[in-house]
Amino acid sequence: MSLLEFFYWLEYSPLLVEMRSSPWLFPVIATIHLFGLVTIGGSVLIVDLHLLGFGLSHQPTVQLARNAERLLLVGILIMLATGLLLFLCFATKYYYLAPFWIKLTALVAVIIFTFTIHRRVVMDNERTRLSSKSVAFTSILLWIIVALGGRLIGFP
């Protein structure tokens, strides 16, 4: 079975056919997906802007990151669960869309980056300003690519 055939099989399963035929279910899931994006965006920006030297300068970076990480995890879980449902509704369409593959690649990259390099720099009290700024910039850039990839999926 090819990847395209697998996507077709997923898209035309009874649950997904029912979901696509509902006038309100897909929009509700898409709205919840956007709430996840907002949650991720807020938690990422609060830490990364702090690393760049903007805002909440009285807060230690480690404490700020630990507090924001809970929201980040919740946002990622919401986005993955709802994103999977949104993908499954139109899997064969997404198969042909470059923005989908760019988003997926950037999403995997940013999740790995966030929980390895980003976390190490944030939790390290001996970090340099250059490393903090480059990590924050990379994090923001990767999350923007994920968000833009998602937005461009709607404009094939």
Task: Give a brief outline of the structure.
This protein has one domain (12-153).
Written overview of the protein:
The longest helix is centred in the middle third of the chain and has 29 residues, at 61-89. 23% of the residues are buried. By secondary structure, the protein is mostly helical. The protein has one domain (12-153). It is built from seven helices and no strands. Helix 6 (98-123) runs antiparallel to helix 7 (129-153).
Task: Give structural attributes.
7 helices, 156 residues, elongated, mainly alpha, 83% helix, single chain
Number of contiguous helices: 7
User: Could you say which structural class the secondary elements and strand pairing correspond to?
Assistant: mainly alpha
Poorly predicted tracts of residues:
none
Strand and helix order? HHHHHHH
Main sheet? none
Helix content: over 70%
Rg, nearest Å: 18 Å
How many DSSP E strands? Answer: 0
**If you average the pLDDT, what whole number results?**
88
Distance between the termini: 26 Å
Write the layout of secondary structure elements.
Layout: H1 3-11, H2 14-21, H3 25-51, H4 61-89, H5 91-95, H6 98-123, H7 129-153
Helix pairs in contact: 3-4, 3-7, 6-7
